């Protein structure tokens, strides 16, 4: 399973991600990677745009733009959707797909073999840059608890998060600087159990009042 800085679509578990997320942990699932890998990396962080040096943005089988009954992220001062720490992959996916849909509508290249909203992160054309600028207001913000800049206890919380994952049966270890995690051995958890464990550990570790 590859944990890119952009959430992967629903399917295999997104173990925020995230991210992030962790994406919610971070952030989404295969095809950006799946649980079969043992040397893959997970991250809580999310890129500032589709051209960030991370794994390719995931594909999606459907266009799920934010709707009237979509979960409401916490309000923020710049108009961008602010994701909450306790949001599930399905909930965060709604907002990420809205962003990817916007990029496509503004001419950003997509990897259509992987789905209608799989962003081509190698597209650095003027059209792509214009699309990123036009859609900047729709790119979700990661929960402030999972960002080093807004959580003075980030490293402590991240260590607790990784320990929680291991206690739950997901054998992983943190990368230098707590920039993500990687598998230490064979993963035996199902996608669903990975997603549930990631969410509970994220809430428990980053939502304990330290941030």
What do you see in this structure?
This protein has 211 residues and is mainly α. Helix content is 27%, strand content 4%. It contains four helices and three strands; from the N terminus they run βαααββα. The protein has helices spanning 89-105, 126-135, 154-167, 191-206, and strands spanning 41-42, 172-174, 181-183. The chain has a three-stranded antiparallel beta sheet, covered by helices on one side. Helix 1 crosses helix 2 (126-135) and helix 3 (154-167) runs antiparallel to helix 4. 46% of the residues are buried. Mean pLDDT is 72; it is low at 1-39 and 45-72.
Order of secondary-structure elements: EHHHEEH
Mean of the pLDDT scores?
A: 72
Number of strands: 3
Query: Biggest sheet, in brief?
Result: 3 strands, antiparallel
Round the Cα radius of gyration to an integer and report it: 16 Å
The class by helix and strand makeup works out as mainly alpha
Strand order of the largest sheet: 1-3-2
The helix tally amounts to 4
Strand content: under 5%
User: Which consecutive residue ranges, at least 5 long each, have pLDDT under 50?
Assistant: 1-39, 45-72
The level of helicity is 25-40%
In whole angstroms, the N-to-C terminal distance is 28 Å
Shape by Cα distribution: globular
Short synopsis of the structure:
The chain is mainly alpha-helical. The chain has helices spanning 89-105, 126-135, 154-167, 191-206; strands at residues 41-42, 172-174, 181-183. A hairpin with a 6-residue loop joins strand 2 (172-174) and strand 3.
């Amino acid at each position: 399973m590859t944990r890119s800085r952009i959430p992967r679509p629903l399917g295999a578990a997104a173990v925020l991600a995230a991210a992030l997320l962790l994406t919610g942990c971070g952030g989404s699932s295969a095809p950006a990677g799946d649980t079969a890998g043992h040397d893959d990396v997970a991250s809580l962080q999310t890129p500032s745009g589709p051209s960030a040096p991370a794994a390719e943005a995931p594909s999606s089988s459907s266009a799920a733009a934010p709707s009237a009954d979509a979960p409401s992220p916490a309000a923020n001062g710049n108009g961008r959707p602010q994701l909450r720490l306790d949001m599930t992959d399905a909930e965060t996916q709604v907002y990420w797909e809205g962003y990817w849909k916007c990029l496509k509508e503004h001419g950003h290249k997509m990897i259509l073999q992987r789905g209608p909203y799989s962003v081509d992160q190698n597209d650095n054309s003027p059209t792509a840059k214009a699309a990123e600028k036009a859609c900047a207001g729709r790119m979700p913000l990661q929960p402030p608890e999972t960002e080093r800049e807004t959580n003075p206890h980030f490293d402590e919380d991240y260590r607790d998060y990784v320990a929680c994952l291991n206690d739950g049966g997901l054998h992983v270890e943190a990368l230098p600087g707590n920039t993500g995690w990687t598998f230490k051995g064979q993963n035996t958890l199902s996608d669903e159990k990975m997603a549930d464990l990631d969410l509970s550990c994220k809430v428990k570790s980053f939502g304990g009042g330290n941030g």
